[in-house]
Amino acid sequence: MRFHSYVIFYVLCCFTFSAHAQEVEVMITRYTKDREALYRKYPVTESAGYYDRFIRYQESFAKELKSVNFDALQRTEQIDFILLKNQVEKDLYFLRLDQAAFNEISAVLDFAGPLYDFIDQRKTGKKFNSDVLAKTFDDVNRACSVKRTTLLEQPFKTWQQAAKASAAVNSLRDGIQEAYKFYSGYDPQFSWWMEMPQSALDTTLAKYSAFLKQHYAKNSIADDGSGIVGKPIGREAIIKSLQTEFIPYSPEELIAIAQKQFEWCDQEMLKASEALGFGKDWKLALEKVKKSYVSPGDQPAMVAGLAEDAIKFLEDRDLITIPILAKETWRMRMMSPEAQKINPFFLGGEEIIISYPTNTMTHREKMMSMRGNNPHFSKATVHHELIPGHHLQDFMQKRYKPYRYVFETPFWIEGWALYWEMNLWDKGFAQSPEDRIGMLFWRMHRCARIIFSLSYHLEKMSPQQCIDFLVTRVGHEYANAEAEVRRSFTGGYGPLYQIAYMIGGLQIASLKKELVSTGKMTEKQFHDRVLKENCIPIEVLRLILTDEKCNADYKTKWRFAEVK
Predict the structure, then answer these.
(1) How far apart are CA 262 and CA 264, in angstroms?
(2) Where does the UniProt annotation place the signal sequence (predicted)?
(3) Domain span holding position 446
(4) Per-residue DSSP letters for 288-314?
(5) 495 and 420 share a domain?
(6) 6-48: per-residue pLDDT in tens?
(7) Which residues contact 553 (CB under 8 A, 6 or more apart)?
(8) Which of 89, 106, 123 is the last residue of a domain?
(9) Is the dihedral of CA 240, 242, 243, 245 positive or negative?
(10) Structural domains in the chain (count)
């Protein structure tokens, strides 16, 4: 009887732990799917209704998290809880910032109440009195024209406010068009009454949006002449962003870290330049390397060869487990000339997307593309994009703890690929001076990214100054530098994305030193474990690998780099 009691007690304990384990993982999945459902239900993202509904959901979920007994969770579930709590707080913080920005300009749509009602009621298929709705659209059209007239002498203080107002009008236009198409052609009465009022209103809203986008004070400058218009977020938002990524440094400290790394790159670049006979004029050495580009049509074969070289180097030294399918399933395709204006270099994952000129590009564009994607530069970019970089990452993410995908962070994604650039350098992967210059070019580029992107978001550098900095300090081709800056600020990347390469790489290198150099893990064990924990902030990864005790309110504190 006593034995059975112990068995029952043991089973109950196991069930309790299992329930908690399921609870956190299920909450992560539910949080992801709930938000996706709300996005589909409320597509007009720049509206009071959208912000109100999402904030209510976020606040409700944050309250629910407080009811979880953190101490009763198993170790893995505690980590997942910390990640989820951080994600919810991060999403809520930036949602409130966006709402505050919307509230500043919401008056530009104070005539649009009936339009929001139309969009909402369409979701449940309400049948409208089409003649009444046509009059409503006509009335709103007139009201919009009146509103524009009243705003003529009231420009926005900043171009950012003007851009937000324009975006709000466009968001409304998209919602109206979607709702209109739901009925048009299916309801004869609707089509007969609504075709002209809807077309007229759409034209008016389009003109109104264009007017608002340019309607700001003359002392507020959106375009510095580069043609690149991004949205600097300011110091407070940068610091909050860093905290949610578990980075305990200020923007100024991160710039100091980048400058220190730059100094190392400068020293190594001079050594490689001297080895090629150019002395201290490393830009002449860089010019020689740029001229080593392959002929048009030969780039894919060159990329394939570099991919094989990297895999062989890794396997010969038993540095990481590379699944057979990962080696088998990667592919390549060519990048369009249009896409190369935003991404002048390779992109990667299961497919490596190759930047190289086509017959439709100008002579200048062709030369810059070939020079910027020469074999020695590509020595670092191919393994960055494929194996052991992004392709291997993505392959493992889909197979190990895939529910953590929601916590995606560039400090893990780009940090891992950059870490391998540093690790392979230390292991002698770049044997010739030309290869070393190629790899150093990219390492200098990562340092420059920290400096110019943070300076831009602190409003201390303009896009044109960022372009010039890449050309003069790193040695970029001008068109490639321009594309890089455009990608950084208008390509849909978060404000910390460009700093994540070097900073994430330094984090992983510091963690490896802590675990591998002390003999707690082999290098291969370390690399395999990093990939199997999926895409999470590196400081949280450190909690897992070091088994450091933590609580539900864990905040960033790991000072992984020296700062002078």
Answers:
(1) 5
(2) 1-21
(3) 240-546
(4) HHHTTPPPTT-HHHHHHHHHHHHHHHH
(5) yes
(6) 444 444 444 443 444 468 999 999 999 999 999 999 999 999 9
(7) none
(8) 106
(9) positive
(10) 3
